[in-house]
Specification:
5-stranded antiparallel beta sheet, alpha+beta, elongated, 5 helices
Length: 265
């Protein structure tokens, strides 16, 4: 009986240890091209805005297939999970809709939506390497998690079991002190206003703006020809054609010389 109790206890411990790990598994797109080239793809997990030539971005079946699967008007927002760089240096992003419908587009035609990574890059010099934890008085309370300090939208979450720990602080123009949380219950890389953890945007910024993350669509000078899939294959064909012609010409000259030589003999 004791052996069975020990066995069941071990199973329960294993289950509880495994569950948190499973929650953090990176979700990979169900796409045939991605499956063949997954080792060559880079994990991105960011949202982008369409900003292509002629006011649209064309989405293709894959970086080597010219079959169109969608067209997005500039301004359309899409979550890009992975990118792939082809042999010509063109970076392609994969987009997946509900129902496992996927598509690829040139990332040159996509602008990243301002997020925690953008904030860290822009305000790196202003972020201090200070660590700590949210006050325990907020256990069981609802607080707001933000993508970055000054973001217009945050989401409410209940502080459960233990308080979030932060590593890195930032003080905004209003004097609000923020802490960067790397991980908390499957949520990654977000910020908490340490002074007013439950306050909404209007409370934190009565003027209606924080001055952070305000960006305009990037103005681009697009080449005359739109980027399309299979560019590398087309280039190989263009290079191969003159090479074949040259080899054929040389072979003809050699054959003619041999033919004349034999006739003279």
């Amino acid at each position: 009986m004791k052996k069975w109790i020990a066995f069941l206890s071990g199973c329960l411990c294993y289950m509880f240890c495994v569950l948190p790990v499973q929650a953090d598994v990176i979700w990979e797109p169900l796409d045939s091209f991605y499956e063949k080239h997954s080792s060559e793809c880079e994990y991105v997990s960011r949202t982008f805005t369409a900003n292509g030539p002629d006011g649209e971005v064309i989405v293709y079946e894959s970086p080597v297939s010219g079959r169109e699967v969608a067209r997005w008007e500039n301004g359309f927002k899409a979550y890009i999970s992975f990118t792939y760089e082809d042999e010509n240096g063109v970076v392609w992003g994969i987009y997946e809709e509900q129902g496992s419908k996927t598509g690829w587009m040139p990332m040159e035609y996509m602008d990243v939506v301002y997020d925690a990574i953008s904030f860290a890059e822009e305000y790196e010099a202003d972020i201090t390497a200070e660590s700590g934890a949210l006050d325990e008085q907020y256990l069981g309370e609802s607080v707001r998690f933000w993508r970055y300090p000054g973001a217009t939208e945050g989401y409410e979450a209940t502080v459960e079991s233990y308080v979030p720990e932060y590593h890195g602080t930032y003080v905004d123009s209003q004097g609000h002190r923020w802490g960067n949380v790397g991980y908390y219950f499957a949520r990654r890389n977000f910020w908490i206003c340490l002074d007013q953890p439950g306050a909404d945007f209007d409370t934190l910024y009565p003027d209606g703006t924080s001055g952070i993350g305000v960006t305009q669509p990037e103005e681009k000078d697009f080449p005359a020809e739109r980027i399309v899939p299979g560019g590398g294959q087309n280039k190989r064909i263009l290079i191969a054609i003159p090479l074949v012609i040259l080899i054929t010409g040389v072979a003809i000259v050699i054959l003619r010389r041999e033919y004349k030589k034999r006739n003279n003999e």
